[in-house]
User: Fold this.
Amino acid sequence: MDFGMIALSIASVSGVGLAIGILLGVVGKKFAVETDDRVVAVRDHLAGSNCGGCGYAGCDACAEAIVRGDAKVNVCLPAGSDNIKAIGEIMGIVVNEEERLVSFVRCAGTCDKTKMKSNYYGIKDCREAVVMPGGTPKECSFGCLGYGTCVNACLFDAIHIVDGIAKTDPEKCTACGGCVRACPKGLITLVPYSATQIVRCSSKDKGKTVREACSAGCIGCGICVKNCPADAIALKDNLAVIDQSKCTRCGTCASKCPAKVITVGQH
Assistant:
């Protein structure tokens, strides 16, 4: 065995490794991308759930967008007001206090209130069920399917299926928008946390058709519109719609609604 050749081989390999290491070090320094310390600081105050509610591919991308000025400092709603204020301080921006938003399911068609036209035995997923012939086993084609796609999309355990329909827990909701995007029926919307008068229906059918399908649906009678002292309600496609920016939370609409479809307090 030629120990000289072995030693030479080891020395050669070590030399090549050392040369490559030095080369990589030089290249790394020459082409290093400087990281703004603010990105790390902002990232520490984001929700950290990578929910995508901000519109960016995760919290890292969101932090970079905020520092670049491409996103507002309050773009991460799940971060909460304290963290948003902290991000504003990092960026040298005074953050105006804005009311917290929560999601709300615009359907009151629970098992005892809505009628069924068929039985569904497919995959328990709203996006799968909605493409089946008929679109829904319920008489109301606008109602909540109740198969929990929104539940699976929520990273904060803030929405559950209760008595056949989805219902949000406003105390847990962070307004990330995951459930809003997941609902194939478009039933979920974001409303102010303080909102107490909200129409729990999305049906655009005429009153008679609504009544035949569900006892908790808006019949488009317009009584709430006529009695609202703040002019905050309008009828759109046979459905009462409340402008929360005008609503004074007086409760007149809820007390006058013959269908009792306007909620009084969501918390």
Q: What stands out?
A: The CA atoms of residues 26 and 32 lie 10 Å apart. The mean pLDDT is 87. The chain has ten helices and eight strands. The radius of gyration is 28 Å.
